[in-house]
Amino acid sequence: xxxxxxxxxxxxxxxxxxxxxxxxxxxxxxxxxxxxxxxxxxxxxxxxxxxxxxxxxxxxxxxxxxxxxxxxxxxxxxxxxxxxxxxxxxxxxxxxxxxxxxxxxxxxxxxxxxxxxxxxxxxxxxxxxxxxxxxxxx
Length: 138
Known about the structure:
This protein is of the alpha/beta class. It contains four helices and five strands, in the order E-E-E-H-E-H-H-E-H. The protein has a single domain, classed as eRF1 domain 2 (Nucleotidyltransferase, domain 5). 30% of the residues lie in helices and 22% in strands. A five-stranded mixed β-sheet has the order 3-2-1-4-5, with helices on both faces. It is globular, with a radius of gyration of 15 Å.
């Protein structure tokens, strides 16, 4: 794919599903952290509350994969989506400026993910070509 208009990313602590879209093509990729996190039970009395932050290596891998996108939609269920947005803000402000939304979305089908993306890209990025559900193979 030569020019990516949009990147739609669903991320959690185990994987990032990334769809690059332009007017005629969809590229899909799945990224995994090199050091997967274990489930940690939260404990209000422990330092840090038992939270497990993703490593910067994983976020850098994801940010490199979205570098060519003109608009980025980040989605997911847990804190990974906001941790990625914060990482981009700190380390890649030019990429953070291209984020059109950070949404809580359950494990979506390709078609459902396309519908969420369409809401953001239609209202926030009318200058770029839009995608259809068939573009994502649903």
